[in-house]
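User:
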Amino acid sequence: MTAAEKFRTLLRNDRRFDAEAYNFIYEALDFTLKNVVRKAPDGSQHVKGQELLEGVKRYSIEQFGCLAQMVLEAWGVKNTGDFGRMVFNLVEYDLMGKQDGDRLEDFENLYNFQEAFDVAPLFCYSRDKDQWRVSYVPRSELKPSNRIPTK
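Assistant: Predicted structure:
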């Protein structure tokens, strides 16, 4: 069975999560490998559940900004445990690997979506490049005078 056939079977058998959510997991894994996890001295890399979830959070905000939670929920992902369920679905269908110590529980309740994705945009203009850039910071880290009203 090809990877595409395995993936279609997974989606047919478990309809909780949109196909885009699974694609996002792969993209977030790549982001995590490049930005969160350090290589072991032997050059190997293994991403633990907590590390992947940190990468997922950062990549979600980078990709979707203030809309991150809304996008994830539209795909059926409502909490960190859902990412674990998706990863273990991919493992079950031989579309992702795992190590013996990896557990579904490693993904449960690592952060609250509402808090993690409550971010405010910060705009910065670069005269050299003549372009605007946006970055996002947790609203809780903004000084009261810089806070953007939420209502």
